[in-house]
Structures are given as structure tokens and as C-alpha cells.
Amino acid sequence: MPRFENTNRKLGVLFATLGLMLWADTAAATPAGTVVAVSGSCTDHGRVLDRGDAVQVGDTIDVPTGGNLKLQMTDRSVISVAPDSSMTVVGYSIDAPSRNVRLSLTRGALRAQISSIRDPSTFEVATASGTASVASASADWFIKAQPDAAQVAVLVGTIDLRSAVTGDSVSIPARWGTRLETGLDPVLPRIWAQREFNAVIRLTGTNDPAAL
Amino acid sequence: MKNRSTRHRNRRRGPPHYCWIASVLPFALAGLIPIASNAYTAAGDRNFPAQLILPQIGPTDALWLPISTLPMEALKPFDPTRQTNFGGTYSKLITEDLGIELEDGLIHRDRLGASSVTGAQNFRATLQYEAMLDPPHEFLLSVLLEHEFGGTGDPAVGSEKHGATTPGVTFGKGLGDLPIGYWRPLAITGFAGYEFGEGPRTNTFQAGISIQYSIPYLVSKVSNVNMPSLLRGMTPITEVFFANPVERAPGQGTNTTLVVAPGVSYSIGRGWELGIEAMIPTTRATGHGIGVIAQLLVQLDYLLPESVIGRPIFVPTELR
Fold it and tell me: Which residues fall within 8 angstroms of residue A209, CB to CB, at 6 or more apart?
């Protein structure tokens, strides 16, 4: 009997530990979105992504040269990641009716089509040069992270771009864009020509026929 | 563009007719000022601020409101002692590269020994096409065709009875692509045009140049210079406007007008811009005393980007 009691106790501790691990894992794996289109070997921490795969808070997504990825987020926003990009989902909290989103773009470009939300929310994309944040209820915009600069262009809505070093910011309305060089103030925004928008739309478009 | 040049002899020795013309010339110059107002354009990361004396260097969706005042030399009763202009120009893009400007305004004259008088200036319309845009080299070039509708203003304030048409070219060039360190914020803009007068109105060659040093460009493209936020939006600028009548009466002296306008423009990229400049006449024909011009630019394409007011009437095919 003592032997069985000892075994039962060990099993109890084991199951409790496993349960705790499962609970903790579930809590940490906050869903952020789902892959709806992919081309090329896009990976999440080395795991090759396929259509239907979930993306969670904390995931770092790498899109290779020639690849594309489109994510449908939990708030119905759509993130399209361009070739040769690396993006981390730092936070994606949808506590209806508010939203708190923070993405980090280490390199490459993305298009963010942000769903409309009434209540105060934050939707930010951070780069080494500075942070771009949505300043309107909804938006459709692009951000490109380069080694020494970031570039933002806005198709719909308004985006604020703040320098990480100087703290100075500019507000970019629809059809406008600007550039931010590391360590400096943002350049004053200017109108973007349609051909410039067409170029970034093509860059962040997906080649996955199923997404069309 | 605003110069309504007329022939004249030395004011003090010439016949009465020429004396009258000479006295009109400064008003003609003052009348030019509102038209010379400019809009906001960019080439790459270079934003050229609105100019106050020279024509705009590119078409845009904007509204600009200049006000200027210029002292006059009154020789006899009823001669103006000061002219003040209140102008307004609406600029509308038809396509991304082609725009039209409509300009009108009021002229107020204080007179020697008489009550002041206020009247309209002639209505003007300008078509402008951006023919070249080279963002990496911060260069743009436009061609324009301006027409002043004669007789649409009030002759009592010097508005011409006869109109004029001016084909011209404008350009802007930033020096940011050159390896010149702290000189990279420098930019040059220019204008050249030929005014064909209707009827007896004299044809005139016109030209201008501006030199500007953009502090917004300095702190966003060159170096994080520590300075007050007010200064970070300023662009010191000097404009020079030159006009010379092409035809001249026998024995007539030069009617060349040359105005130097040093000043400053202020913009923080929020859809508006303020500019103020002194107007310094440098020839006898140009005027008498130092004037001032100030201008508010409202960028409709920034403030109303998704309405027809703030975007071209015809836009290229959009991808989605």
C-alpha cells in the first residue's frame, strides 16, 4: 500500500504539472490571426506556414525573397507582408470594444488594412527608426523598414509617424507619405503619386491564387 | 507675371504723359504681387515652400491668401501714397500633373489729399503642367500659361483695361543629392516668362529666382541639430523678381523692375504654411520704399485628401 500511495502521489504531481503547463501554454498562445494566403517558404520561428495556420502573439514571421504572406487578424484587419520581411507580433489584444496592437517590423514592408473600430485603440508598427501609429478609426497604409530609415504611405485614414530618437512626429493623411531617417526628425509629408502607391500595392500583394 | 510695365522717361524731366506712366509703374508692380503667390510642391524628400513673389513651381490643390502693402511716391493730389493688396488664389489639380489656378483680389489705395479708394484687380487664370519630376535629384520643372483678363478689375485702382498672356517655365532644384554636408538644405527655384500684352500694352520679359535654406530638411535629412521647435519649421528664403519691357520708345530710359524679397516661411507639415517677406525695390522704376507681403497657404490636398476638393479631378487607375 505505501508503495501504491507513493506512486499515486507522484502521478498526481505529474498530472498537476502537465495541467499547469497546458494552461500556461494556452494562456501564452494568444491568437492574433490566421494565414489566409501564402507563397514561398514563409516561416514562424522556423515552422513553415501554410494557409489556415494560426499566428499568435510573440510569433516572428519571416517572409523570404519572392514570398508573400497575408494574415487575417482577429479584429478582421488584414496584414500583407512583402518579400524579404521579418515581422513580430508583439501584442494583439482585442478586448472589445477596444484594441491594442503592436507589431515590430525588423526589415521589409507590410500593408495594414485596419478594420474600423469606434472606441479608443492603438495600432502601432515599430521599426528601428521610429513608430507609426494609426490615428483614424480605420486605415489602409504601408510601412517599409530599411536599415537606416522607415517609409510610410497612406492610402486611407491618417497615420502618425514618430522618430525614435528625437520624438518629433508628423501626421500623414490619405494619399500622402513620408520618410524617417534613423536619428532624425520625420521628413515633412508629401503627396504620393498613384504610380508610387501601385508599386507598394504590388510589393505587398500575394501571389497565392487562392487568395484572389 | 504681375508686372504691367509701361514706357516712361525720367519722371522729373519727361512730358506729363510719361510722368503719369512712371507713377503708375509701382502700382503695376504692387498689382503683380498677389499673382506671384505660390503653392506647395515637392520633389522626393524636398518640400519647396510656398513662394510669395514668384509663380508656383508646380500645380497643386491649395488655397493661398496673400496680403501686401507697398508705399508709393505721391507727387500730386490724388496720387496714391500706399497700395495694399488682398488676394486669393485657388489652385486645382485636373490630373496629377496638370492644374489650374484662379486668382482675384482687391486693391486698396491711400491717396494724397483725397479719400482712399478700393477696387478689384483683374482676374487671372493659369494652366500649369508639371513636365519633369526627378525625385532622387530633387528637381521639378513645369510649364505654364497665364492669362490676365483685361477690364475685369477697377481702373480706379490701376487695373489694366487690356489683358495679357504669359507663357513661362518654372523649376525647383534641391541640393540634397550633393555631398555638401550642411549646405544640402539649400534649394533654388526659378521662373522665366514672356508677357504678351493685348492692344497697346507693352510686352515684357520676366524672370525670377529664389534661394532658400530649409531647416525642416536640415533636421530630417542632414543632422539632428538641437534648436527650438519654432526654428525647426522655418525656411529662410530670398526671392528676386525681374521684369523688363521688350519694346521701348525712342530716347526712353530703362523701365527695368527688380524687387528683392528676403523673408521666412514656416511649416510643420500640418496642412498650412505661413510666409512673410520684405519687398525691397532696387530700381527707380520698381517703387518707393520698402513693402511687406505675408501669405497663408492652406493645403487642401492635406486637409481634405479624400474629397474632390483635395484630389485631382481625374486620377489614374488605382490598384487595390
Answer: none
Partnered with residue A110 across adjacent β-strands are A81, A143
Domain ranges of chain B: 16-303
Q: Residue B9 above 90 pLDDT?
A: no
State how far residue A91 is from chain B, nearest Cα, in angstroms. Answer: 27
Asked if B267 lies within 8 A of A193 by C-beta distance, the reply is no
Least confident segment among A32-41, A116-125, B90-99: A116-125
- Pairing between strand A98-114 and A85-95? antiparallel
Q: How confident is the model at residue B28 (pLDDT cuts 50, 70, 90)?
A: very low
pLDDT at position B288 is: 79
Q: What is the reported pTM?
A: 0.84
> Bridge-partner residues for A194, per DSSP?
none
Q: What is the spatial distance between Cα B167 and Cα A191, in angstroms, rounded to a whole number? A: 26
> In the A/B pair of chains, how many CB contacts fall below 8 A?
75
- Label the pairing between strands A121-126 and A98-114: parallel
Contact (CB<8Å) B96/A181? no
Residue A196 · residue A178 · CB < 8 Å: no
Does B141 or B281 have the greater pLDDT score? B141
**Neighboring chain B residues of A183 at a CB cutoff of 8 Å:** 224
> Which of B4, B12, B95, B3 is closest to B54 using CA atoms?
B3
Spatial separation of the C-alpha atoms in residues B29 and B4, rounded to whole Å: 7
Contact B224 A185 (CB under 8 A): yes
User: What is the second-level CATH architecture of the domain B16-303?
Assistant: Beta Barrel (2.40)
ipTM value of the model?
0.82
Nearest to A191 among B217, B223, B301 (CB): B301
Q: How many angstroms separate the CA atoms of A123 and A116, rounded?
A: 11
The architecture that CATH gives domain A32-211 is Sandwich (2.60)
Q: Which residues contact A53 (CB under 8 A, 6 or more apart)?
A: A34, A35, A44
More confident position, B72 or B260: B260
Cell digits of residue A40: 514561398
DSSP 8-state secondary structure symbol assigned to residue A197 = H
> Smallest Cβ distance to B269: which of A165, A189, A193?
A189
